[in-house]
Amino acid sequence: MTPTMHDVARVAGVSIKTVSNVINDFPHVRPSTRMRVLSAIEELGYRPNLSARGLRSGRTGVIGLAVPELRQNYFAELADAIIRAAEKHDLGVLVEQTSGDREREIAAVTGAGRLRLTDGLLFSPERLGQDDRDLIQPKFPFVLLGERIFGGPTDHVTMHNVSSAQAATEHLLEIGRRRIAIIGAHPDQREEIRSADLRVRGYKRALGAAGIPVDPQLIRVAAPWHRENGAEAMRDLIASGVAFDGLFALNDTLALGALRALGDAGVRVPDDVAVIGFDDIDEARYSIPSLSSVDPGRQEIAETAVELLVERINEKDGEAIPPLLVKSEFRIVARESTGSTGSS
Amino acid sequence: MTPTMHDVARVAGVSIKTVSNVINDFPHVRPSTRMRVLSAIEELGYRPNLSARGLRSGRTGVIGLAVPELRQNYFAELADAIIRAAEKHDLGVLVEQTSGDREREIAAVTGAGRLRLTDGLLFSPERLGQDDRDLIQPKFPFVLLGERIFGGPTDHVTMHNVSSAQAATEHLLEIGRRRIAIIGAHPDQREEIRSADLRVRGYKRALGAAGIPVDPQLIRVAAPWHRENGAEAMRDLIASGVAFDGLFALNDTLALGALRALGDAGVRVPDDVAVIGFDDIDEARYSIPSLSSVDPGRQEIAETAVELLVERINEKDGEAIPPLLVKSEFRIVARESTGSTGSS
DNA sequence: CTGAAAGCGCTAACAT
DNA sequence: ATGTTAGCGCTTTCAG
What we know:
The structure is a homodimer of 344-residue chains. The first copy, chain A, has helices at 5-12, 16-23, 31-44, 50-57, 73-88, 102-110, 161-174, 195-209, 227-240, 252-264, 298-314, and strands spanning 62-67, 92-97, 121-123, 142-145, 155-159, 180-185, 219-221, 246-249, 274-276, 293-295, 325-328, 331-333. Chain A has 11 helices and 12 strands. At the A-B interface, helix 4, helix 5, strand 2, helix 9 and helix 10 of A face helix 4, helix 5, strand 2, helix 9 and helix 10 of B. Chain A binds a DNA duplex (16 and 16 nucleotides) through residues 4-6, 14-18, 20-21, 24, 28-30, 33, 48-58.
C-alpha cells in the first residue's frame, strides 16, 4: 500500500513526529536527521495523505469557484485568472458550474453541493439577485463576485459598472457619435442592481453630461448576453429604421453578434456605426474589425478575490473584519471598431 | 463548533452507526428512526466532514483535470463538458492549469502538484510528447486526453485526427477547390504524433485520393495555434503570391485569425477562398462569415473520459483491464465559409 | 531537538 | 434493526 509517515519514520529510524517536522519545515530539526528523513521519503515515494491532513487541520487547501458556465468566455477567463491567483497561495480550485440555475446557485451558497471539501467559496451568481440577498448567509469563508447582489454580509469584489459604462459611452461621443444605441438592456424595465442596469445608467449619465437626450428607441433589450441575441437585437434595430451612428453593447459577446448583423446588413464599422463592447475578452482583439472594449480589470478582480478569501480563511473567530466591497480599476481599450487603427 | 455525527446521534437519541446508516442510505433502518435522525440533522445543520470520510474510505469524490489554459477556448469547452459529465457521477473537478509548461505537466502526471486530494486525473498534455511516453506511469487512476502521446500504459481518449482532417479537406474538394492551403503545420518538419502532423496527414491523404499533388508552398507553419498566428500565416501566404482557393486551418482559432487577414486583404470568403477550421468551438457559429469546422465530438470525449476514469477508480486491484484507446466520432459542420447558406 | 500518545470525524467489522 | 469499537494518516500537545 501507499507508504505513511510511520513507514518513513521506520526507514529513517526516527519517530513520526520528526517526519512531520521535516515535512512542515519546522525549525528545530538537526540537518543530518532532516537528510535521513528526506531520503527515506524519496526512497519510499511517500506523499502526505491530504485527507488525513485535512481532517486534522481543518483545512483542505482547496477553494471552490462557482460560476454559471465555463463555456462563456468571460467566465473561462475569470476561472483561468483565479486558478493562477490561487496557485500563488498554494490553493487548488474546485470548479462548479451552476448553469445559471437558481436551485444550484442556492445550493452553492448554502454549502450543499460538491463544495464541502473546500476551505471557502468564490461565488459568481447569475440568477440570484438583490431580492435573494438574505440567502447569502454562508457559514464558511465566502467572497461574492459580480454585481447581481449588493449590500450582503460578505466580502464582495466587483467592477465600476456605472463609471466604466459612462466612459465607454464618452469614448463614442468623443469620436463624434451622437445617436448612440445600446444593446443588452434587461427585458424587465425596473431598475435593479445588475450589470445591465448599471451600465445603462452609465450610458445615460454620459449622454446627460453631453446634453444629449436619451432616445428610448435606441435602448434595446437582449438577454441572455449571447452572440445570437446581440445579432438579433441588432437586426431588430436596423429593421426598425431608427437612425444611429454608435453602438455600446453591454458585453463583448453581444457586440460580436451585433458586428455580425451589421456586416450582413452592409453597414460599415466604424464608418457608419462605431461599436464598443464590454469585458475585453481575448477575441475582441481578433474580430473583424477588432472590437473596442472596456477592460474591467479581470486580473485584479481575480487576485483581490482570492486574497480576500484567504484572509477570511485565516481569520481567527474573534477578530472578524467587517465585509469589504472592492471595485477593480477599468480601462477603455480603443480598437478598430471605434476608428482606432493601431492594434492593442 | 460544527456538529458531528455524535451530536446528531445524541439529539436523535440513537447511536452514531444509525446516523451513518441513514446518511449512506443503508437498507435496514426503521422509518421512524430515520425520521428522527433526519430531523436532528436538519436541526443541527449537520454536514458530513468530507475529509474524514475521505480518510476513512480512501476516496475524496474529486477528480483532477489538468489542461494547458482555460482561456483557450477549446479547453474551456472541454472543461465545461467534463465538469458536467463528472457531476453525473457525483464527482467534483479540481482544475489545474499547466500553461503548457513541461515541468508542470510532469508534476501533474507524477501526482505531485495540487492534485493529490483527488481520486484520479484526466490529463491533457500540450508539451509532453511521444518521447516522454515513459514518464506516463501514474500510480493512480489516470486517463490521457488528446493526441500528444500514444501507446502509453493508460486509458486514452482522443479523436480521429487523420480521417476527420481528410474529411475536412474532402469537403473543400467537393465544392470544387483544388488549391487548398493549410495553416498550422508544426515548425519542425519530422512527422511526430501530434494533432498538427496527424491532420496534415489527413489532408495529404485526401489530396492523394483526389489525384492532386501536394504543393509544399501551400503548407504553412503556425504555432502556437492562436489567432495572431493564424492571421500572420495567412498574411505571409497572401504576400507570397502563391495561388489558393481553399484553406484548411488546423483549428478554429487559427481559422478565425486567417479570416481576419483575408478580410483585411480584400479576399472574399467563400467566393475567392473557402475556409474550414477544426474543433467547432462556439464562436465558429458567429464569426463573419460563419466558420465551417470539424466537430471532434467533444461531448463524447468528456463523457467517455470520465466514465473510464470512474471505472479505473472502482477497479479492484486484481482485475486490471488492459489500457483502452477510444476515439470519438467526428462530424463536418458546413457553414458560410465553405458556401453553406444555412446556419447550423 | 525528538518521542509518545491523543484524537480530528467518519466507516465498517462485529456484536447484540 | 441498532450499538460498540477500532482504526484511516496526520498534527499537536506534552514530556523528555
